Amino acid sequence: MTSRLDSPLLTDLYQLTMLQSYLDHGLEDTAVFEFFVRKLPAGRNFLLAAGLAQVLDYLEALHFTADEIAWLAGTGRFNPRLLDYLAGLRFEGDVHAMAEGTPCFPDEPLLRITAPLPVAQLVESRVINLLHFQTLIASKAARLRLAAPEALLVDFGLRRAHAGEAGLLAARAGYLAGLDGTATVLAGREFGIPIFGTMAHSFIEAHDDEAQAFEHFARSQPDNVVLLIDTYDTEAGARTVVDIAPRLRAKGIRIKAVRIDSGDLAGHARRVRRILDAGGLTDTGIFASGNLDEYRLREFIDAGAPIDGFGVGTRLGVSSDAPYLDCAYKLQEYAGIPRRKRSEGKATWAGRKQVYRYYDTDGRLARDCLTCADDARDGEALIQPVMQAGRRLARPSLDESRAHALASMQRLPPPLQTLETAATPCRVEVSPALKSVTRKADTRIAADASPP
Amino acid sequence: MTSRLDSPLLTDLYQLTMLQSYLDHGLEDTAVFEFFVRKLPAGRNFLLAAGLAQVLDYLEALHFTADEIAWLAGTGRFNPRLLDYLAGLRFEGDVHAMAEGTPCFPDEPLLRITAPLPVAQLVESRVINLLHFQTLIASKAARLRLAAPEALLVDFGLRRAHAGEAGLLAARAGYLAGLDGTATVLAGREFGIPIFGTMAHSFIEAHDDEAQAFEHFARSQPDNVVLLIDTYDTEAGARTVVDIAPRLRAKGIRIKAVRIDSGDLAGHARRVRRILDAGGLTDTGIFASGNLDEYRLREFIDAGAPIDGFGVGTRLGVSSDAPYLDCAYKLQEYAGIPRRKRSEGKATWAGRKQVYRYYDTDGRLARDCLTCADDARDGEALIQPVMQAGRRLARPSLDESRAHALASMQRLPPPLQTLETAATPCRVEVSPALKSVTRKADTRIAADASPP
What we know:
2 copies of one chain form a homodimer. Chain A has 2 domains: 13-138 and 328-444, Alpha-Beta Barrel (nicotinate phosphoribosyltransferase); 145-317, Aldolase class I (TIM Barrel), CATH 3.20.20.70. In chain A, the strands form 4 sheets. A 7-stranded antiparallel beta sheet of chain A has the order 13-12-1-5-3-17-18. The first copy, chain A, has 452 residues and is an alpha/beta fold. The first copy, chain A, has helices spanning 13-24, 52-61, 66-74, 80-88, 117-122, 124-147, 163-176, 185-191, 201-206, 210-220, 234-250, 265-278, 294-302, 314-317, 398-410, 432-444, and strands at 30-39, 47-48, 94-97, 103-104, 111-116, 152-155, 181-182, 226-228, 257-260, 285-289, 309-312, 326-334, 337-338, 353-359, 365-372, 380-381, 384-388, 391-392, 427-430. In chain A, a hairpin with a 2-residue loop joins strand 12 and strand 13. The interface between A and B is large, with 120 and 120 residues.
């Protein structure tokens, strides 16, 4: 690929055709857009906000190169006014957002962008693209952590992630939501996430003998000996591990764990545990992988299967049971006047919004209140300024965001921490002030339409 | 993001830990890996091979930068032998593959890589990542084209694609499978795909008046007038279009189409068609979008809804009903000897393979034969050399691959062209030669294991 993914051309064509018309007709006043999720996927009780850091990176770096302007000109679709404007375009607006790792609910804005209409419009596609994906994956990964609070959990999803950036960002979103690390090396470099990995079946198959493969690996990676034992026969593999252990021990090499990647994982784990224990390898752990998700993790834990850690790949990396969120980035105000879309089934609350969060006396989340940004209240205001006039205000580390996510998940009411839909969802009140602003926005519109 | 996605660090850590052990123990002989899909997702009757061009781009460019080597060294996990090897590593192997756009079936290799074991191993993660995703999306897009053979079909999936590269490559895979184009501008630049786009609801909302919004847009993009009419009330929007049409016509501007994005699309389309026709706009088309997939397209077409084109977004871009394929890249031969994995439920056919395709007298696909690469037969050999000693042999254009896909889909038996699972799947025979090679591979393995 010769193009850069942070190119502003990674956008929908309609952003550019709209921009041309905005400029032609002087619509350059301040616009306010908000990103929110319309509803939770089946089975989810909350979402975990994620992806803000990448959105801010994108906005900070936003510019068209001379090559990109020349390419746009060559399409014959755009006039010089637009091309000149784009050549000088930078993001100098304001951004307000929920902190990454914050549990959130439908209709609550995760992000608000305040900027001249053409700029706030242009960035829509990539802003949604970045926030949607990481929020999707963090929300899935949170369920893995809730299902297996004590287990080592590692993202194995790169291979079947939807292309490369998804693999990289899923590793980030998973770690943010409480996983322990990832197999994706580049995520270790890019985000400082702990990386995990030892061997694939091909390593065993390339040797004529499984025992020799194990010994070769142990001698090359003496501090990282996790042996994959299911290439031919899992229990035979475990016995081979016991056989070679004394020779390795004599060289000062400890077998940290074995990995099982196929078959009845719980059954194999029990038999392998007995073989290892009988062979004196009581401190050698068992790591499992292969088609795992939060439901299977819970099964293993409920059944007391002796598995110490899990590699979770595809079903995490593509959020397989809910591979997308119904989300939007919508114009909420233009030139000081609240606006909203009223399309059937897609109506939104108008104006700039704030979310106040309230807790019970035991510290658990009790309810949220969705209101206008200028409706000052007590309570924890979740939407905070994060960029002012194009300059970032703070840059929490990924580990800080992860700690926030883990602490916030523990403050959720227990029914929201389960894998099934809670009988009572989190209460999100809409304030009288917000209802009033929305009614006023509607009465301004000339078009013939019925009230919401 | 500061890292490049074509970095060889976009891999699983175990590739590097295995490489170190391969080098330490002299396992640098020639290895043969093949990529294949184990089974079709529910409802799919075939897959469409895609992503080869990006795999070859990756292999051609493969190298570690000095920075990347320094970062690896800094992890403390690797010895100088490995780091030196990686610093000089280039892909100088052979690649055989199915042409992009070829319909294919379980167990048939889409790609074979022949290279020294450490090199063929290292590229696994990214090769799977690229082939899996585009094959997934092309296979989904093919169903859209089969459901609506005559309609204009445009990819709208960028926003909810799984991050940026997925949005870009889904546009490519969709076009390859027969869509007409994409909204993603960068895909236009990168791949020469036709791009489509006009306006979002925010454009209408930023104006105080819908009619004014329509006129502004038409004057700015006179050759591209597709007006979004459902922001407030769809039929009222259609009447507004009729009202402004004479003024635009006087300026030489034709209203190409209206777009409906919400509600009962078929019902709205019928009413809008009557309003447009009654207003003399008989040559103004109707374009629909919003939560579409192949099943909804078929409904509209079966119902005779007057819709001329469709924008298909999320459900295409994430292949929502089947967001991943059960696929693998497996060692099939090392040092001249066929190998295979026998893990439960994951056993594979051993050795280098070829797929011969046979047609009925009417030109329809009759059956495939999966056999050893050296088992020469009559029939169309689908696996062809595409890279030799690291040099690309041919570079079909995307339009050539798209024409191949469309022609090949038409040669599928009609039951395989439907959206439901065909009563009789495509017949894929396994040759006696391949069965024999696989048996021999098994008898070589010393480990205690039962036959397949």
